[in-house]
Amino acid sequence: MKKFTCRTVLIVDRGADDGFLIVAAVQRAGLGLLAQSVAGEEEAIAYLRGDGIYAERLIFPYPSLLIVQLEMPRGHGFSVLHHLRQNPPSQFLPVLMLSNSDDPGYMRAAYRLGATSYCIKPQNCAGILPILLQLSHPAVPAGLNHRSATETNHAQTN
What's the rounded Cα separation, in Å, for the pair 40 and 89? Predict the structure, then answer.
């Protein structure tokens, strides 16, 4: 039997419609990635655990990259990071934290909780493509903390 392999990007955003920009970027990138989108941190944690409808891993494969919106109506993306880092199978899963804020406190908290990158959420598909290409490239080891261009530029101006 052939082993099923698929690189999946799990997008955690405020709602189904909000993840559309990122899903479009994943599809446009042409990297052979499957984009799965969930609304909010509770649904993201259920997906990662394989709870309920997410138990069928042929339909909902475990992700190789996670893109999480920080600000959500009921909570925030930090709870997803906390869940990941408390569970050994997912400790080294690369996570891109997207935010509408350039608050250095949010950036520090995201990196402290294990985010791979923190970026201001782009307003269009073209803005997310370079970030996606960098994080999904095999030369970037999973779990490697690196600074995004946004944080690096912010740090240089302060």
Answer: 21
- φ/ψ of 155, rounded to 5, equals -65, -35
State the residue for tokens 């307003």.
123
Percent of the chain with pLDDT over 90: 35
Q: In angstroms, rounded to a whole number, what is the distance separating the alpha carbons of residues 142 and 54?
A: 23
Beta bridge partners of 68: 12, 97
Sketch the domain layout of the chain as residue ranges. Answer: 7-157
Q: How far is CA 122 from CA 1, 28, 29, 111, 142, in A?
A: 42, 15, 15, 19, 23
Find out whether 38 and 11 touch, Cβ atoms under 8 Å: yes
**Helix or strand holding residue 13 (H, E):** strand 7-13
- The pLDDT, as a whole number, for residue 17 is 64
How far is 40 from 33, CA to CA, in rounded Å? 21
Amino acid identity, position 48? L
Q: Could you count the other beta carbons within 10 Å of the beta carbon of residue 57?
A: 12
In this predicted model, what pLDDT tens digit does every residue of 18-64 receive, in sequence order? 677 788 877 777 778 888 999 888 999 999 999 999 999 999 999 98
Domain 7-157: CATH superfamily, name plus number: Response regulator (3.40.50.2300)
Predicted TM-score of the model (pTM): 0.78
